[in-house]
Each structure stands twice: as structure tokens, then as C-alpha cells.
Write a structure and sequence with these properties.
This protein is α+β, with helices and mostly antiparallel strands. The chain is built from three helices and five strands. It has one domain: Roll (Thiol Ester Dehydrase, Chain A), CATH 3.10.129.10. The two termini are about 25 Å apart. Keywords: Hydrolase.
Length: about 140
């Protein structure tokens, strides 16, 4: 289950040399995650309103592999890796054509109204289950 989201690099995303400023990759993958959730048919505002929680980044392990430049067309990919309890782990990448520029493993936690972790929403678990290949039982 991999989702793809295209974005264009704008002048505001770059430094004086026309290279994407490193922190902006985190913004790009945030957009990719939001679009991934939307592609699953889930509305994050409705989830919050219904008490199903909100997602917060707990951990990011990132590799900057090559620079993106002003006016590049990039593809942000988001792929489900695993989940347990309140945690969801995704693999995200930024590509320009076939060239991988950035790769990250992102751990999210679902937080309730009190700011404390709570189990991932049932609707999300159902969607992940629909889109995840099942291993045969032995």
C-alpha cells in the first residue's frame, strides 16, 4: 500500500543556491502523509471531532541522499510498514523521476484530547487491513 503525491519545488522552498532547504523535506512528507490518510477515505478533522484522536510525529529517521532544486517536480511516496497500539510506522521518500533524494522512516502516535496516547482509530486499522497483503497462516 504505497501512496504517491506530486509536488513542485517553489522558490520559497530553496536556499540562496536554489537547493531545497533540508527542513522542507519534513514539510513535503507531512503533506504526503496527509494525502495518504485522505486516500484511505479518512477525514482527520472528523476523526478528531469524534474523539478518534490525532496523529503526532514521535520519531523520524531520515537520510538526505541528493538535493532537489528550484522548479523540480517531486513525487512524495508514503508506504505503510507496521502498527501496534497507538503507533503507526510509515516509510516515506522524495523522488525526482527515478532518483531517490530523501528517505525517512516516520513513527506516528495517536493522541487523544488529553494529549495522551490512545489506540489507533478502528477506521484506520480497517483500511490498513484492506490494503495490506495478508500472510498465510501456517
Amino acid at each position: 500500500m504505497t501512496h504517491s503525491h506530486p509536488i513542485r519545488v517553489y522558490y520559497e522552498d530553496t536556499d540562496l543556491a536554489g537547493i531545497v532547504y533540508y527542513a522542507n523535506y519534513l514539510k513535503f512528507i507531512e503533506r504526503g502523509r496527509s494525502e495518504w490518510v485522505r486516500s484511505l477515505g479518512l477525514d482527520q478533522a472528523a476523526m478528531k471531532a469524534q474523539g478518534a484522536g490525532v496523529f503526532a510525529v514521535r520519531r523520524v529517521v531520515a537520510d538526505y541522499l541528493a538535493p532537489a532544486h528550484f522548479d523540480d517536480l517531486l513525487d512524495i511516496t508514503t508506504a505503510y510498514m507496521r502498527h501496534s497500539g497507538a503507533r503507526l510506522v510509515l516509510r516515506q521518500s522524495v523522488l525526482r523521476g527515478d532518483k531517490m533524494l530523501f528517505l525517512a522512516e516516520v513513527t506516528l502516535v495517536c493522541l487523544g484530547d488529553t494529549g495522551r496516547p490512545q489506540p489507533l482509530p478502528d477506521a484506520l486499522i480497517e483500511k490498513i487491513g484492506e490494503n495490506t497483503p495478508h500472510k498465510p497462516k501456517v
